[in-house]
């Protein structure tokens, strides 16, 4: 009989370090039931759609075209806000400083674009309008104050978001702007970016907290948010252009937080009513997720909601 020499505890530990236990594979973390529900929800959609979901309590995910590039539309205002807070953190601008509106900043006739030349307001209010009502002129103003798309993209790259980019008014990004518009991202990255803010990792813990609070004030709550109880706290940003609809949200659900992103492109339905197929998909996905994560909830969306939009 062959006798083996005794093995010390230290030797065992060194052996384990050299040959680590295999990490849990991605399939081990896939929520198969939810993935099937979402597959059914997306079936028949006239265009391209992608979804990414992460249950922050269990770590389980559901992903459909989650790494496909989509137009950001107004969800690009999340990375713009991060870029702005990065400049604030560096001391180049102040969140509460008074800024002066000039007619040269005008893009459209939203709230900021309707100001008179020379009007003064705190930068914090411009940021609030960018995230809450999705003011476009205010957003482009914030983009410029953030150092432009180049500076924002550099932050995204340095922090592990290589697919998320600002294209508009960004040198060298014109071909991408022609294809994707103001910005581009994937459902996985955009959901992960919102989660990154929630974790306190975007710029700094205090900056992340301020940004997260901004995202919890959403005027455009007639789509995905309309499928959740009004008392549930949600951080959210949505976007829409003719052939694309998108929404990213972190939901503080009773049985565990979850973050998700749903995006579309190449939609055949370019209408601007609430019945638009893309808007309808945002509501469908939100409802599927709520019912999946909160199966005992008695909440039902209020009927006749469309008359308010």
From TrEMBL:
Keyword field: Hydrolase, Signal
Highest taxon in the source lineage: Bacteria
Catalytic reactions of this protein: a beta-lactam + H2O = a substituted beta-amino acid
Beta-lactamase class A catalytic domain sequence ranges: 50-264
Transmembrane segments: none
Signal sequence, renumbered to the chain: 1-23
GO BP: any one term: beta-lactam antibiotic catabolic process
Protein name in the entry: Serine hydrolase
The organism of origin for this protein: Fibrella rubiginis
């Amino acid at each position: 009989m062959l006798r083996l020499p005794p093995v010390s505890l230290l030797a065992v530990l060194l052996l384990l370090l050299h040959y680590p236990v295999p990490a849990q594979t991605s399939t081990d973390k896939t929520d198969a039931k939810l993935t099937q529900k979402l597959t059914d929800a997306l079936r028949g959609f006239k265009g391209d759609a992608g979804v990414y979901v992460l249950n922050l309590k269990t770590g389980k995910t559901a992903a459909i075209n989650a790494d496909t590039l989509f137009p950001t539309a107004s969800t690009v205002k999340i990375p713009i806000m991060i870029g702005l807070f990065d400049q604030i953190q560096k001391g180049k601008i102040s969140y509460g400083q008074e800024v002066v509106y000039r007619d040269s900043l005008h893009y459209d006739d939203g709230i900021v674009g309707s100001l008179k030349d020379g009007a003064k307001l705190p930068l914090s209010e411009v940021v609030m309008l960018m995230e809450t009502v999705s003011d476009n002129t205010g957003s482009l103003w914030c983009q410029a104050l953030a150092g432009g798309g180049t500076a924002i993209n550099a932050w995204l790259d340095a922090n592990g978001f290589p697919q998320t980019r600002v294209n508009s008014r960004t040198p060298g990004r014109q071909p991408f702007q022609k294809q994707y518009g103001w910005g581009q991202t994937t459902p996985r990255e955009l959901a992960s970016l919102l989660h990154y803010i929630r974790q306190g990792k975007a710029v700094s813990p205090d900056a992340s907290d301020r940004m997260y609070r901004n995202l919890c004030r959403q005027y455009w709550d007639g789509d995905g948010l309309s499928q959740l109880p009004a008392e549930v706290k949600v951080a959210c940003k949505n976007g829409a252009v003719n052939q694309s609809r998108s929404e990213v949200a972190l939901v503080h659900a009773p049985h565990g937080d979850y973050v998700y992103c749903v995006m579309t492109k190449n939609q055949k339905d370019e209408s601007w009513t609430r019945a638009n197929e893309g808007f309808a998909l945002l509501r469908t996905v939100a409802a599927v997720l709520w019912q999946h994560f909160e199966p005992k909830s008695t909440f039902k969306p209020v009927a006749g909601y469309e008359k308010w939009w």
